Amino acid sequence: xxxxxxxxxxxxxxxxxxxxxxxxxxxxxxxxxxxxxxxxxxxxxxxxxxxxxxxxxxxxxxxxxxxxxxxxxxxxxxxxxxxxxxxxxxxxxxxxxxxxxxxxxxxxxxxxxxxxxxxxxxxxxxxxxxxxxxxxxxxxxxxxxxxxxxxxxxxxxxxxxxxxxxxxxxxxxxxxxxxxxxxxxxxxxxxxxxxxxxxxxxxxxxxxxxxxxxxxxxxxxxxxxxxxxxxxxxxxxxxxxxxxxxx
Length: 247
Fold this sequence. Notes:
By secondary structure, this protein is α/β, with parallel strands linked by helices. Helices cover 30% and strands 23% of the residues. It has helices spanning 19-33, 77-91, 101-109, 194-201, 215-223, 228-245; strands at 10-14, 40-44, 60-63, 96-99, 113-115, 120-129, 145-152, 155-158, 164-168, 176-180, 183-186.
């Protein structure tokens, strides 16, 4: 059996500002996908000079999280530029999996509604597949209910026209959806394991996603949680992309 992605090439579009957190995110994707570095190209967009590479060189695209919020009243020039790049992915036929911030962006760009009604502190959240998920080529093979890692201030309140809700949950009603025929988005973070999110918390201690005094409690909870079923979406996405490319 071939190693994951042995015959394919994937792109990770990174929206993190700061070398340490960007490296941590790349490490999380390498571990979570099982892809080697030469098959998962790390492509940060941290200035308005950074643009997407030729997408035809890749079988699929991952988009990591971001410190931005689409509900902020003012979008800086970098955020506007990030949106332009993400929109190119949204309308491209190449399969794309957007995580966390992509959940908000794809709804925002498609005419849906994003607000701050269902924030989730950093930690674990229950994710429940919808009936429509059974027909989805990526999400359809996941467990009907599983636990995902979350941490966000804003959430999707109304899906764009044509989007298909794939997963919901008791603390956030939109945990995953298919934005179009080539774009999937999740509110939860399948790329991180327990140690990954604990490491990530160190970069956002005062960002409002959790209280510093909660770190020990959150660490204990995530270490005691089986996060494998959430991570499976990464592998299903890779398999889908490789099958689509005939690899």
